[in-house]
Amino acid sequence: MSAVIPDDLRTDVATLWDYHDMHHEPRPCDVGVGLGSHDLGVATFTAELFQKDMFPLVVFSGANAPTTVERFPRGEAVHYREHAIALGVPSEAILIEPRATNTGENIQFTRRRLDDEGIHPSLVMLISRPYQQRRAYATCRKFWPEVEVICASRPLPLDEYVQDIGDADRVINMIVGDTQRILEYPKRGFAIPQKMPMDVEIAYKRLVAAGYTTRLI
């Protein structure tokens, strides 16, 4: 396992990395939604944003996936909540949605969770892994179209993020998988369509040809 991106792949990985960053400017929102994954940094950054008064309420959403069940055996949302509390977020400022197993369910179940609490936000911040931003945005626009959405992730450079995760192959596979979902999910009714520049599509196809296929659907 290496935490270094191979030199011959660096340009293509960086092209996809930049494409998935929505480059949204954080601003105060009604609620921050931390999307569950293997990356505990999502909960860390959600806590940092809360402490900067970016939102008064946090929802952590996520059950388990094959990639998270060992690390978060009680569910992603539960572990995220505990981590955020350890970082100083008051427990009363956190709701959890512990059933979602994909991004579509993250959005739909979070919406229902807030509805159950009588909370109807107009501006939502989605906090995710950096390469999940574009898919999270497209999914939210499909299943929660009445809200304005801002996407946010820890502001780490690509190499620093890979070193933090500790596994370059895993990160590259995940980025390639998310890129495929930008193309495929609108066809399945899971997301709104988004433009993909030619250089992004070419980089994606080269990484698939290089064998980064474990997260393809």
Automatic annotation (TrEMBL):
Domain DUF218, residue spans: 45-150
Signal sequence extent: none
UniProt cross-references to InterPro entries, sorted A to Z: Cell_Envelope_Assoc (IPR051599), DUF218 (IPR003848), Rossmann-like_a/b/a_fold (IPR014729)
Taxonomic lineage of the native organism: Bacteria, Bacillati, Actinomycetota, Actinomycetes, Streptosporangiales
A single Gene Ontology CC term: plasma membrane
Protein's name in the database: DUF218 domain-containing protein
